Amino acid sequence: MANALATSSSPYLLQHAEHPVDWVPWSQDALERASRVDKPLLISIGYSACHWCQAMAHESFENAEVAAVMNEHFVCIKVDREERPDLDAIYLDACQALTGQSGWPLHVFATPDGRPFYAGTYFPPQPTEHLPGWQQVIEALGTAWTEQRHEIEETGTRLAATLSGAAQLAPAVAVPDAPFLDQATTAIAKRFDSVHGGFGGAPKFPPSTALAFLLARDQLPMVRYTLASMASGGIFDQVGGGFFRYAVDPAWSEPHFEKLLADNALLATRYAEAASVTGDPAFGRVAERTLDWIVRDLSCEDGGFASALAADSGSTEGAFYTWTPQQLRDALTSDDATTAMAWFGVADAGSREGDSTVLEERGAAPEPQARDRILDALLVAREGRARPARDDKRIVSWNALTISALVAGSERLGRGDQLAAAERCAALILETAQDHRGRLLRLIPRDTDDHSQIPAGVLEDHAHLLDALVALYEATTNERWLQAATQLAAVLLRDFVDPDRGGFFSTANDHE
């Protein structure tokens, strides 16, 4: 029997609608219910393309015995982090404060009014050397709520005070000057991985915002080496274009295979900018292939863009993207297969379980005609495989980032079709995802959507779209985009600004 998530529009929540757990979506009713029955909250936050979210669902939430314990001790709330980035940010900070780390799936235990007192990410079904088992956790916390209520309440109160600190920041005395920016550059450079590119160790995420800062500061060696390392590594889909979420190793070789729209929009912009600044056509090619992947695999009929492709294909993570030597031989001519295996470093033993390999540029690339022939043939062959699931919700801020990326691509790569796609997406948002006050919704609605059920847009939706509209105006000189940008700026100043300390809140002034 379905639980209360069955009427949700979120693909992530719908994935949990048939669980024996009595999941409910986040709402004031859920908090009031927790207060009424005097049970703590179990807040589980994730997103549809998250491999470990799905793993924990199969291992624990589909287990009737485990679900009975959860239902007995907690009001269990499911949150799609992409629909509610405000809740996600608060509880990520709580997890970081409590454990020193965070990620997804995110599990936070809180008092009925939402004050967190315990948190963690993935928990296995049975205890391991490093982690307690999920049932062990929920049974212990259920008992603690009964027997140590006072200590739990105190923990929640202290942590809530800590988490509110960001709202109390005082304004800076002056705008950051050149010495301040030099200090920031030096701090970033200290974390630079001179062997593999990027910053820090594994897991390794593409550092889009750091690269934007370094490009603006003319720190080209770090930028060039990082962009080149990522583009040649397994984190880049060598066959279809586009980047995976992150690498589990420091060398960008072994990816976690989900693909997100926002990550790729930001990276396409960085590669297009780098192509323009450095004159290196290889960076332009990566930008172009990434944007082509977005348009090919994430476009919706109305001009919007879906948010993600999942990591798993069928029941196996990454099966859609990896290749065995025999699969390459089946897809290519004998000569091209030999060339491809040398180019991508494919050996008979493979680099992963089952003799499959994540393709990387390990050898010299063939000349352009052979390169394109090999990639086209592999792409056609790959289309016959079971495809990763697509999350079709259209997040306004991510679509806005994509508009900016398409504009950057059209300007630097001479692609008029990309500019047309950007304009079509911008028009869709302005025509369907704004309320009567000029505020944005979090999601681009579909014709069948109940707009009252779509979460309100947050700061990033408005800011990213404002940036995209300015870019569109500069590229087209169409007054429509300038007028829309001006109106959106007024909404930001009216509804999001902090009149006392300066800056902007992440949610509007009448948000919960």
Question: How do you describe this structure in short?
Answer:
By secondary structure, the protein is of the alpha+beta class. It has 19 helices and twelve strands.
Question: Could you please describe the fold and organization of this structure?
Answer:
The protein has helices at residues 11-14, 28-37, 51-61, 64-73, 85-99, 134-147, 149-163, 178-190, 208-216, 220-232, 261-278, 281-298, 325-331, 334-344, 368-382, 396-413, 416-432, 459-476, 479-495; strands at 24-25, 41-46, 75-80, 106-110, 116-120, 246-247, 255-256, 259-260, 308-309, 312-313, 316-317, 390-391. The protein has 512 residues and is α+β, with helices and mostly antiparallel strands. A hairpin with a 5-residue loop joins strand 4 and strand 5 (116-120). The radius of gyration is 24 Å and the shape is globular.
Fill in the keyword field for this structure:
alpha+beta; 5-stranded mixed beta sheet; 3-stranded antiparallel beta sheet
- Helical proportion? 40-55%
Structural category: alpha+beta
Q: Tell me the strand order in the biggest sheet.
A: 1-3-2-4-5
- Stretches with pLDDT under 50, minimum 5 residues: none
Annotation, overall tally of beta strands: 12
Terminal residue distance: 31 Å
Write down the overall mean pLDDT: 92
The number of helices is 19
Instruction: Round the Cα radius of gyration to an integer and report it.
Output: 24 Å
What order do the helices and strands come in, and which of them pair?
Blueprint: H1 11-14, E1 24-25, H2 28-37, E2 41-46, H3 51-61, H4 64-73, E3 75-80, H5 85-99, E4 106-110, E5 116-120, H6 134-147, H7 149-163, H8 178-190, H9 208-216, H10 220-232, E6 246-247, E7 255-256, E8 259-260, H11 261-278, H12 281-298, E9 308-309, E10 312-313, E11 316-317, H13 325-331, H14 334-344, H15 368-382, E12 390-391, H16 396-413, H17 416-432, H18 459-476, H19 479-495
